[in-house]
Design brief:
Number of strands: 19
Shape: globular
Strand content: over 45%
CATH topology: Porin
Number of helices: 2
Structural class: mainly beta
Distance between the termini: 25 Å
Oligomer: single chain
Largest sheet: 19 strands, antiparallel
Radius of gyration: 23 Å
Length: 436
C-alpha cells in the first residue's frame, strides 16, 4: 500500500448488493462518485504579482499558485475472471478489469480528463512450474497542451502532478516464470514502464514539454530457501531507458544498464511479510555527437538501485505497510536524468465492523544533480500526509471521506528564489461506492 493524493485515494469498499448471485467469472461490478476540493490545482508556489511579463502559448495555461477548483469524479468498474470457465486447476487467474475515472474540474476546465484503465492478469501453476503476467494499461484523454510555469519557476513534483492529467498512454507490465526445487528456485522475469506523452512541444520559457520515455528490462533471480516461507535471492537485470529528443534541444539522456541485485523475501513471522532487492546499477550513457548531447559528466557511473515492501498485520484489525524505491530515471521534460526516491508508510485500522481509518505518509525526492547543466540544478522534495475514513451504510453502499496535504519543498543549495520551488496543497473529498 502507498500513501496517495486525495484525488487518487482508494475508493470505499462496499459489500455486494443483495439479490441475484453473480457469476463466478464476474467478481467485480461497482459504481463510485466523489466530490473534492483542490486549493492548489497546479502545485505551484509562484504568485502572479511576483513575476515580470511572461508568455503563455495558445492552448496552455499559466500554472500559478492558489488556482482552486471543485473536482467531480465518476468511477464505474467492471472486472472479469475467465479462469472458472476453463475448469482447470492449473489456471488460477485469467482476469480483465476496466475502471475509468471521469474527472471534471469545474473552475479549471483545462485540467478535466477521462482516464481509461485496463488491468489484466494471468496466473497459473503446473507442478513445480508457475507463471504470472500483470499488465496495467491507461489512456488519459485530457488537454493536449502542457502547462506553462512562468519564469520556469516550479517544483518537479508540481509539473509531474499536472502531467498526469494530460493526453497520454501509459503501460506497466511484468511477466514472471518460476521453477521450484526443494531448496532452490529459478525465476526469469521482465518488466516494462512506458509513457507516450501526446502533448504539443513548444519552445517557450516555462512551457512544459513532456517527452516520451520508457524503461524495459529482463533477467533472472536465483533463490535459496532458508526455510519454507523465507528465501535469499541473487538477481541480474539488463535494461534500457529511452527518452525522446526535442527538435529544438540537443540534450537527451537514454542509457543502458546492468544491475546485480541481492534480496530477501518471505514471512519471517506469521504476521510479517518482507521483500527487498538492492544492489549496484552499472550505467552507460551514449557519447556526445554534433546533434545529441547526454548532459552527464560521467558517462559510465555506478549508481544504486533498491526497492522494498514490508507488511505487518499486527492483529486482524491493524495493518502497517511500508514501500520504498530508489533508482535512476529519465525526466519527462527532457535534458538530464534524475535519482528518484520514494518512501511510503500507511496504516489501516478497522475501528468497528462498518468503520475503517487509513493514515498515510510519503516522502519523495527528485535529485537532478547527476546532470551537468547549471540551469537544471535542483533537488525537489514532496511530503504527503493523508487520512481517510470509510463507513459501510449497508451491505451494498459505502461512503468515504479523505484529506490530503502535499508539501513541496526545495533541498537545493545556492539557488535564487528557492521559495518559488515550494508549494502547499490541500485536497478534501467525499465519495460513495455502490458494489453490485
Amino acid at each position: 500500500m502507498t500513501a496517495v493524493r486525495a484525488e487518487e485515494a482508494p475508493k470505499a469498499v462496499a459489500a455486494p448488493v443483495s439479490g441475484a448471485k453473480k457469476s463466478a467469472w464476474l467478481p467485480d461490478l461497482s459504481f463510485g462518485i466523489k466530490e473534492g476540493y483542490d486549493d492548489n490545482v497546479f502545485l505551484s508556489g509562484v504568485p502572479h504579482g511576483a513575476l515580470p511579463a511572461f508568455t503563455v502559448p495558445p492552448g496552455s495555461i499559466a500554472a500559478l499558485e492558489n488556482h482552486s477548483s471543485w473536482v467531480t469524479t465518476v468511477s464505474p468498474k467492471i472486472g472479469f475472471n475467465f479462469a472458472p470457465l476453463f475448469g482447470s486447476k492449473n489456471l488460477e487467474t485469467l482476469s480483465l478489469a476496466y475502471s475509468p475515472d471521469f474527472a471534471v474540474y469545474s473552475d479549471e476546465p483545462t485540467e478535466s480528463y477521462n482516464a481509461h484503465r485496463f488491468v489484466s492478469a494471468v496466473k497459473g501453476k503446473v507442478s513445480q512450474f508457475s507463471f504470472n503476467l500483470d499488465n496495467a494499461f491507461t489512456y488519459i484523454n485530457g488537454s493536449d497542451t502542457g502547462p506553462t510555469y512562468p519564469g520556469a519557476l516550479y517544483s518537479a513534483y508540481g509539473t509531474a502532478g499536472v502531467r498526469e492529467r494530460r493526453e497520454q498512454f501509459q503501460d506497466r507490465a511484468k511477466i514472471v516464470f518460476r521453477y521450484d526445487t526443494a531448496h532452490w528456485f529459478f525465476r526469469p522475469t521482465a518488466t516494462l514502464l512506458y509513457y507516450d506523452l501526446m502533448t504539443a512541444h513548444i519552445n517557450t520559457v516555462g512551457y512544459q514539454n513532456y517527452v516520451d520515455r520508457y524503461d524495459v528490462n529482463g533477467g533472472l533471480d536465483l533463490g535459496y530457501k532458508i526455510t519454507a516461507p523465507v528465501a535469499l535471492t541473487l538477481g541480474y537485470r539488463y535494461g534500457h531507458q529511452y527518452q525522446e529528443a526535442l527538435s529544438f534541444s540537443p540534450y537527451q539522456s537514454p542509457s543502458d544498464y546492468h544491475r546485480i541485485l541481492f534480496g530477501f523475501e518471505g514471512k519471517p513471522l506469521k504476521w510479517l511479510k518482507v521483500e527487498f532487492q538492492m544492489g549496484p546499477d552499472f550505467r552507460t550513457y551514449p557519447d556526445d555527437t554534433a546533434s545529441r548531447i547526454a548532459p552527464i559528466t560521467d558517462k559510465t557511473p555506478v549508481l544504486y538501485y533498491g526497492e522494498a515492501t514490508v507488511s505487518a498485520e499486527f492483529t486482524t484489525k491493524d495493518t502497517l505497510s511500508f514501500k520504498y524505491k530508489q533508482y535512476q530515471w529519465v525526466s519527462s521534460t527532457g535534458r538530464v536524468p534524475y535519482f528518484d526516491s520514494t518512501y511510503d508508510l500507511t496504516y489501516h485500522r478497522k475501528l468497528t465492523d462498518p468503520l475503517t481509518v487509513d493514515l498515510g505518509a510519503r516522502l519523495g525526492s527528485m535529485d537532478y544533480n547527476t546532470g551537468n547543466l547549471p540551469t537544471c540544478k535542483r533537488d525537489d522534495l514532496q511530503y504527503t500526509f493523508s487520512i481517510g475514513l470509510g463507513y459501510s451504510l449497508s451491505k451494498h453502499i459505502a461512503v468515504n471521506a479523505s484529506y490530503t496535504a502535499d508539501l513541496g519543498r526545495n533541498a537545493q543549495d545556492n539557488i535564487a528564489g528557492p521559495e518559488n520551488r515550494e508549494f502547499t496543497r490541500n485536497v478534501v473529498a467525499l465519495g460513495t461506492v455502490i458494489k453490485f
